[in-house]
Specification:
alpha/beta; Metallo-beta-lactamase, Chain A; nine-stranded mixed beta sheet; five-stranded mixed beta sheet
Length: 278
């Protein structure tokens, strides 16, 4: 089977519902995404590539609904295409989006109803809808607060880290800073939601443990990109800031999935972003 970006999907945890809201897709030749070894991507029957042998990842956000709360975990890539050209490849890699707001509205949620955006980290494909493509500092989610770790914020706020094509743009940082709330280990931005440090992919990356009355989930952002990283957590993603630390984080996530029975919510997974543990 060939892989496809994941569609809209729901997970009911009891009192808390998680919905994957698609925005777009990422495609790259496996050796580009995993330059230190990519054999596990095309083997073992994991169905991670398309008909051209390109690794397929989903791009989007997770909508959390609990009572009258409407919260996004991350904010997609926005209405743009980011080419990721590498020499020696047959097909150029890219990330692109544009469908998030339309899909939110199809779920009955307007941008103004979002009261918080929980940011796993600040890469371009996780902050793209905070503003618009004109570079305006007018927020898309006008009533939202933005939760991010101080380590992540401090790294990207440094002038020397600006201009990275996969980093946040200036207007996105301005929007976050206008209503920024700090995340630390164990922070509880709303009932049943807890911050879990998952550093490595970026300096202040965080996951979110979600606890409903009928189940638990772990929303992992980019701590895990595709199912092969659960089976082989030693795989190193091309964009990992601190690869050894990122591997240790993936080992711990794989352990939790196997031993604690939580549902993994991995918004980059193709086909299905919800994967249940044992």
């Amino acid at each position: 089977m060939t892989a496809h970006p994941a569609p809209v999907q729901n997970l009911d945890l009891g009192g808390i519902t998680l919905t994957f809201v698609p925005d777009g897709e990422f495609r790259a030749e496996p050796q580009v995404a995993y330059p230190h070894g990519h054999e596990h991507i095309v083997g073992e029957g994991l169905d991670l590539v398309d008909e051209n042998g390109m690794l397929v990842l989903s791009v989007g956000a997770v909508l959390l609904r609990s009572g009258d709360r409407r919260v996004l975990i991350d904010a997609g890539i926005g209405a743009r295409n980011i080419p990721l050209v590498r020499p020696g490849t047959t097909h150029d890699a890219y990330m692109r989006g544009g469908a998030l707001l339309q899909n939110l509205r199809a779920l009955g949620v307007e941008p103004g109803q979002i009261d918080a955006v929980l940011l796993t980290h600040l890469h371009a494909d996780h902050v793209g809808w905070l503003g618009d493509e004109r570079g305006s500092s007018v927020p898309t989610f006008a009533n939202a607060e933005y939760w991010v770790t101080e380590e992540e914020w401090s790294f990207w706020a440094k002038p020397e880290n600006g201009g990275d094509p996969v980093g946040p743009r200036r207007h996105e940082l301005d929007i976050i800073d206008s209503r920024r709330r700090p995340l630390t280990a164990g922070s509880q931005p709303l009932d049943g939601v807890f911050a879990v440090p998952t550093t490595g992919h970026t300096p202040g990356h965080v996951a979110f443990s979600i606890e409903g009355t009928e189940g638990r989930a772990l929303v992992v952002g980019d701590a895990v990109h595709c199912p092969a990283e659960i089976v082989h957590p030693e795989l190193v993603w091309v964009g990992d800031h601190d690869a050894p630390h990122a591997v240790r984080t993936r080992v711990e996530i794989a352990r939790r999935l196997a031993e604690e029975g939580v549902t993994l919510v991995a918004p980059h997974f193709p086909d299905s972003v919800f994967r249940r543990g044992s």
